[in-house]
Amino acid sequence: MEILIFLIISYILYSISMFMLFPKADKAAWKGLVPVLNFMTLQEIVGRPSWKIIYLFIPIVNIFYVTSLNVETVRSFQQYELKHTLWAAFYGPVIFFKIAKDEKITYKGPNEIDEKAYNEEITRLQQEGKNAQANRLIGKSPYKKSQAREWVEAVGFAVFAAAFIRMFLIEAYTIPTSSMEGSLNVGDFLFVSKAHYGIRTPKTVLMVPLLHNRIPGLNVESYIEEPSINFKRLTPLSPIKRYDPVVFNYPEGDSIYFNKKRTFSIHDVRRSPDNDFIKETIKGKKLITRPIDKRDHYIKRCIGMPGDSLKIVDRQVFIDNEPADNPENIQFRYFIPNINQYQGILGIREKLRDQGVSPEDMIYLKNGIIVLNETQKTYLEQAFPGIQIQHFTKELQKSVNWPGQETYPSDGKFSKQWDNDNFGPIYIPKKGATVELTAESWPFFERIIDVYEDNEVIREKDGTYRINGEIADTYTFKMDYYFMMGDNRHNSEDSRVWGFVPEDHIVGKPLFIFLSTKEGSIFNGINFDRIFKSASDM
User: Fold this and answer.
1) Which of 20, 107, 272, 478 lies 20 to 30 A from 453 at CA?
2) CA separation for the pair 119, 527 (Å, rounded)
3) CB proximity list for 337: less than 8 A, separation 6 or greater
4) What is the pTM assigned to this prediction?
């Protein structure tokens, strides 16, 4: 709504400023108040053909076109300084009002035609060998810009264009962890389309261009939370499909402790109050709050769609009681007893690296714990006859003192019964669907009702629920939600840990890999066979 109000007010101001400006160029003032005709009249003022009005109706292109039209308009009134260009590019109505009111400013003529003719005359003189005359024209040219200004305008336009494209159309991402290993590997650089699932208007207004949420070196956030505007998502090119890899903002990233090595949310801390690693990582760190569009980016596979019932039984996902398709390179954690006999003698680590096992998935190899896909597991069994490779079950985790992780909804009941291999059933909320609020359902939907859908929620001592001051025994969802999982099923923090992904957290669709470094470092080499590989086929 805020964006719509801003656009309406801006257009009204634009029209009034053109109404005041047009008489100075011998154009009827009333034309400034007529939609489309006002911009066609601006084109006449600067010397552009009428057919170019079609650019006004092409999304994204129209923004750049109107900006250039503003700049050429002020130049047609002999306003050539850098400050004039910046005002025209930033907000045309302001300088249009100024020109209209200033009696000293007059209309020179259509700038695009005049500047083109002036430059053609200089070129003609140079071709005829009349360099002295050509140099005189160059020296007194009203269109001449200093080298510094040329750089400022070029860099400014490049930053604006890059920031605009990054914010609304396509952004580059890198895969930092092995949660999608086998499909999207550590060191893969992706182009992600923000238009496929619907362009989101920004919530954060004041930010450093081309940075997401941190300023390198300064160790501070790259934005100011207020003022902010509400999200609006434009019409998508395609809906999210089951099994799509999807980029989204981390749902629990609203309150985090930032650390270069590892960021933890306040919810991670609450789930694992006795975890020494978390305690050490966040020691002395300040809690940071972030708006939706500035939360960290995650990439996972969409397993559960709005309205689905999902459960996991012995590592197999079921959707509405039907087994889901497993990714080709799905990975699980395994345990290898007596690992030491293979470490040095047979060089198991080196062989596994040759098979594509990432260093992150071998970090606990000395303890016999490793993450593998089926092909890698088969390779080990063939390469080392007699080797035992055991599924890393909940019981086995206890026997090796593996620190388990509490699953969603972290209520102390379901979450202690469930784990990554056996989870659910759980209902994935769908927009417009209504659920009953009970002691059992409340833990699953409390954060949705309270945080994601912005209600005031109170759970009374007698077990009743108040939503926005009213006692409620049912709730109707305002948004669609998705259940995201990593292909590396035992080395992925996903919806099994922090729950559903709201539709307003969806960022975009991965398109293809444009660069892939070995094990996440350019110094290890480049995976040329992965470059230009489609992310949709993984």
Assistant:
1) 272
2) 49
3) 368, 388, 390
4) 0.80
